[in-house]
Design brief:
Chain lengths: ~230, ~325
């Protein structure tokens, strides 16, 4: 079974070491208060900075894999959508591939409904449009592990649902999907939730169990309202 | 389009070498050897310097812009050119170097110092205002230090004979001087061009680049060192020339469909064209004294720079 196994990676400068196992097919959400370490964990898994420990994807150690192989192992989508240069939408998606593949690019343009924008410079698009382009870039090389930081911020409801659909499709096709999430109302659509705070994984549970737990309420400083939604926990 | 640019380069190179043609004809009539001498000893170093310096400015400007993720970064605005001038002045008037290659090394060291200082001061992913202000501060400081070094130099003529050179000038440079500038500059530029793909990927952000196995920090050190060598060596021979390193990458990106790394080659070609044309203009205008070529590039470059600043500001407020 395809899996992502992380051993003793350090999430932040406090160097708390974390182990994590994710199997292909499950949609995993990372939740936690701001500054708790969601982004840091994703960056550590993507081996962006020297985070110590090791990460194995499908039995292959990421640090030891050559750059050409990396794109097939993992892809990281940062929360920032800043793009300085007037590169066309089509070309930005192509940057996700080792060699140009017009069919793959065409498929992604269609999936993210970018036909009308394909030739437009990406730095002139709205943030939400840019989010779709960058998501398509992240998916382009069909990586085994998708490490996505807040992919759905700034999206309108239709695109939030479409992104979730894409994640489910990816998981069904055997990809590993980890998504850092701010909007707790989407948590129910994931198979497993990791609660991350103070630089470590505090809980790993099914979303419903997680949200019902005292620890969750304590860390987020909120409580579930009987009528639905959340209230500040005093 | 690319072909047209290359053709234009060849035309400009030939024009720069052969124009004005009258002196060559006259020399030819007197003695064919004399015409060859003018061509090889006087015209060729100047043509090679103008083209090579322009290409180095274009390529390193494009590389610095890709690295800083900012279309306003360039050898002059980052303070690298002023740093190189300071390095060469210190080497020539205080350390007593006279070998062109030693002066080129001093120029490269000065440019490197300025760029290192800029990164320390502003960081790599700084906003435009920080980058411009830090670059301006470094340029002003290096300019003042250069003036001071010349004023206090052991040679009483230092100020006078450095003036023409500091403003950018290709007059009366020997083949040896041209080689001292262009051999390091073309090697450094060639290494920069090899990083074109990596600089394209950096456009997706440092984190994405690192996640596919690139090393953004190492890449930026490479870009800084290579740009410093390319620009520093040229400044030591032909002075600090402004705006070509800013303007050429802008046009280069029009030919690379916006890709910042792939823009290096067209930027180099356009830089060579711009500087050769500017020098041709300087040579064609007959005034009492020759005008430094840097004055011409600045005169034409400033409006474009202002326009870039305005469009960027409009985009930020929109």
């Amino acid at each position: 079974m395809t899996s992502l196994i992380a051993r003793q990676v350090a999430i932040d400068e406090r160097l708390l070491q974390t182990d994590l196992d994710v199997t292909a097919g499950e949609l995993v959400a990372l939740v936690g208060p701001n500054g708790g370490g969601k982004t840091s964990l994703l960056r550590a898994l993507a081996r962006i900075e020297d985070a110590g420990g090791k990460v194995m994807i499908d039995g292959e150690e990421v640090d030891a894999s050559p750059p050409a192989r990396r794109r097939r192992l993992l892809s990281f989508l940062p929360a920032s959508r800043d793009m300085t240069w007037p590169i066309s939408v089509r070309d930005v998606i192509a940057l996700g591939l080792d060699r140009p593949d017009a069919r793959r690019i065409g498929y992604l343009i269609e999936q993210f409904e970018l036909e009308r924008l394909a030739g437009r410079p990406v730095n002139r698009l709205s943030t939400g449009e840019r989010a779709r382009v960058l998501m398509a870039r992240a998916l382009a090389a069909r990586p085994i592990a998708l490490l996505l930081d807040e992919p759905m911020s700034n999206l309108d409801p239709y695109w939030v649902l479409r992104f979730l659909e894409q994640f489910r499709m990816a998981a069904d096709e055997g990809q590993i999907v980890l998504v850092a999430l701010h909007d707790l109302s989407l948590l129910g659509r994931f198979d497993r939730a990791l609660l991350i705070a103070d630089g470590k994984i505090q809980m790993s549970e099914a979303p419903a169990n997680l949200m019902a737990s005292e620890r969750f309420a304590e860390i987020f400083r909120i409580r579930a309202e009987p009528a639905g939604g959340w209230a500040i926990r005093r | 389009m690319r072909l047209a640019v290359v053709a234009l380069l060849l035309v400009v190179a030939a024009a720069h070498l052969l124009l004005p043609i009258a002196p060559l004809r006259e020399a030819q009539a007197i003695d064919p050897g004399l015409a060859n001498l003018i061509l090889l000893e006087l015209r060729l170093p100047r043509t090679l310097l103008a083209l090579g310096y322009g290409a180095a400015l274009g390529a390193s400007g494009a590389a610095l812009q890709a690295m800083f993720a900012n279309p306003l970064a360039s050898p002059d605005i980052s303070g690298a050119s002023s740093g190189a001038a300071l390095g060469a002045v210190l080497g020539g008037y205080w350390l007593g170097f006279s070998q062109p290659i030693a002066l080129a090394a001093c120029g490269a060291a000065g440019a490197l110092g300025a760029l290192a200082f800029l990164v320390a001061l502003a960081g790599r992913r700084s906003d435009t205002a920080t980058l411009l202000l830090a670059g301006l501060a470094i340029s002003l400081a290096a300019g003042a230090a250069t003036s001071l070094a010349l004023a206090l130099a052991p040679s009483p003529f230092a100020f006078y004979d450095a003036f023409d050179w500091l403003m950018g000038n290709f007059t009366d440079r020997s083949l040896l001087q041209a080689a001292a500038a262009l051999i390091p500059a073309s090697l450094a530029t060639a290494f920069l061009l090899r990083r074109s793909k990596a600089l394209d990927l950096i456009a997706l952000g440092d984190d994405v680049a690192a996640s596919i196995g690139l090393r953004p920090r190492q890449l930026s050190l490479e870009v800084i060192a290579l740009s410093a060598i390319a620009v520093g060596a040229c400044v030591s021979v032909a002075g600090a020339i402004g705006f070509v390193g800013l303007v050429a990458p802008f046009f280069g990106r029009q030919l690379s469909r916006g890709h910042p790394g792939a823009a290096m080659v067209p930027a180099a070609i356009i830089g060579a064209i711009l500087l050769a044309v500017a020098d041709l203009a300087v040579r064609s205008v007959h005034l009492d004294r020759p005008i430094p070529v840097g004055v011409v590039t600045s005169l034409f470059g400033t409006p474009l720079f202002l326009w870039l600043v305005l469009t960027m500001r409009r985009r930020v407020t929109a």
